[in-house]
Amino acid sequence: QPQHSGVWAAGCTGMASGAWLKKRTSEGWPEPRTAAAEAAHTTVPQAAAAPDAGHAAGAWLPRKRSRSAAEAPAAALPPLTAAQEAVLGLAGEGRGLFLTGAAGTGKSRLLLEAARRLRGEVVLTALTGAAALLLGGRTLHSWAGIGRASLTAEALVHYVLKDASACSRWQSATLLIIDEISMVSAWLLDALDAIGRAARRCAQHPFGGLQVLLCGDFHQLPPPAREAEGWAFEAKCWDKAVEVAVELTEVLRLDPKEVAFADVLRQVRRGKVDDTAWALLRQLSERPRDTARSPTEVVPTNSQADQINEAALLRLPRDPGGREDMTYASFRAAADRSPATACGAAFASSCTASAPSRGSSSSSSAPERLRLRVGAVIVLTKTVLVGLEGERLPNGLRCKVVGFVQIPESLYNPRSPSFDGSAFGLSERQFLLQHRGVLPRIAPLEAAVEDSAHTLYPATFRESGCAVVQLPARLGWAITAHRAQGLSLDSAVVHLRGLFSTGQAYVALSRCRRASDVWIAGGLPKRAADGSVPVFAPDAKVAAFHSSIGGA
How many other C-beta atoms are found inside a 10 Å radius of the C-beta of residue 341? Predict the structure, then answer.
């Protein structure tokens, strides 16, 4: 494993404060700190713990511009710690940064403040829609103009160069922030580097001279196709683009009194758990659930989530004065190449056809049958545009069904005397005819009232050359660990049996502020005599990379 040229800020462990870093100089990179050097190092005291910035701001509504979340009133966000201020200073110097840290250490808060304070065109992006929402930004694929990135790298460069709007975004940006870097493959990062060099007409500098701030934790979820495409730190452009690497170490998401829980999460992150931490995990697995609470179930697979969700749906009372359950069957067309066009932003809904993303399957996004009832909790499977101003509800957002509505036949029925035909494509009209134009009204869980509700329209998914039309949603009482990344949950039931990917256990266990908010279902996994837990173990390449740059 080669030594990586990341500048690493690794502070004290657990609930300790401070951050420190290494910088690349003309002589190369300094060696990792020795124990004596660390003992002599004076850390900067941090401010009182606060919840994640996105969660604290409480804003589920998406913004119009990539920086607008950062333009929210400063009073709505917790103040930066001294360590975060130091990192912000490095960004202000124009350095390429890699920002990492355990879950809940305030990475998102720092990104928001960077967009607020730094001069120039700061672009906030994330790999998933849910993470982009927390930043008030856009998905990386959307901003970069690469669609689902299903082409070769060379083809993507030509594709973006033909898109005047995408080229303009690349040329005007001064700082590109990419959150969830652990889920970005080496292939994709190198492709973006090539696009930046071409779009900005500056082939000699990484990303065409565009400063980058790469943020994320490689101990969390990996890229979908890491075996074939590698981790981001394996990208050819990494060493040239990243001048400074910083690790935040104080967990701010947790209650300040949760020192023991913070230490458990730190050990789970590294894959080895001592007797004290294991005893706390055993308590979480053996204590009875609080029947007064409705925690989110975090499970390994979609099939497990489906079973839990169906049971929860059947427990909902029927509305005696309202509409019965609605079951939406997907509509399949052989090769519908004409996706829906919007008749006003109120009817737009991410219907654009696109190839599946690299290393992922689109089949999980369009269930064959989706049964809904008033009160049902759902999770969006595509970013949708709603409202007259085209507000974005991102992929991964949890909402509640607050009612059903029957849209006018003129929008979808060719037999209607006033049929327009411009609101939906042929396949979407067939779907609406099949369901008599009845669609659900949804509102985000944080504001699940009729005043904040929007109609959820069908979307078109592409599966093996076939157009599949379905509502872009799944039931959401239970979510997979992949969908949980980046979220702050009030309470959670974590299922550790059946985990199949590195980082899943750590992501699932670190969503809540207190140990009392977490229950472990199905018992604990096997633990070796030396404390190692195979299901907790990080990827070997991640462990080597983290060690090579002096991470805590």
Answer: 15
Residue 452 CB neighbours (<10 A)? 15
Question: Smallest Cα–Cα separation from 354: which of 440, 459, 269, 435?
Answer: 459
Which residue matches tokens 């659930």? 289
Residue type, 526: K
Q: Are 478 and 299 in contact (CB under 8 A)?
A: yes
**179 by DSSP, 3-state: which?**
strand
CA distance 311 to 66: 39
Q: Tell which residue, 520, 517, 525, 533, has the closest CA to residue 494.
A: 520
Radius of gyration of the chain (CA): 24
Q: Which residue has the tokens 């969660």?
A: 55
* Rounded CA separation 127/119 (Å): 24
Strand order in the sheet with 518-521: 478-480, 296-299, 492-495, 518-521
Report the C-alpha gap between 335 and 88 in whole angstroms. Answer: 50
Say if strands 138-139 and 122-126 run parallel, antiparallel, or are unpaired. parallel
Strands 466-470 and 459-463: antiparallel
* pLDDT, tens only, 131-166: 776 787 888 998 999 988 888 999 999 999 999 999
> Helix, strand or coil for residue 543?
helix
In terms of Cβ atoms closer than 10 Å to its own Cβ (0-12, 13-18, 19+), residue 122 is buried
**DSSP track, 339-350:** ----SSGGG--S
Least confident of 128-137, 336-345, 393-402, 540-549: 336-345
Q: Residue 532's CB: how many other CB atoms inside 10 A?
A: 14
Q: Which of 337, 304, 330, 279 is nearest to 458 (CA)?
A: 330
| Domains detected in the chain | 51-253 (3.40.50.300), 259-295+480-541 (no CATH), 325-476 (no CATH)
DSSP code per residue over 399-446: EEEEEEEE--GGGT-TTSTT----SS-HHHHHHHHHTTTEEEEEEEGG
Stated pTM of the model? 0.68
pLDDT confidence tier of residue 323, bands split at 50, 70 and 90: low
For residue 219 the two structure tokens come to: 């101990």
Q: Where are the beta strands (DSSP E) in 450-528?
A: 454-455, 459-463, 466-470, 473-475, 478-480, 492-495, 518-521
pLDDT tens-digit readout, 430-478:
999 999 999 999 998 766 555 678 999 998 876 555 678 999 998 989 9
Tokens at residue 44, please? Answer: 């900067």
Q: Is 333 helix (H, G, I), strand (E, B) or coil?
A: strand
pLDDT range class, residue 77, cuts 50, 70, 90: low
Helices marked H in 399-539: 426-434, 481-484, 504-509
State the Cα–Cα distance between residues 393 and 217, nearest whole angstrom. 25
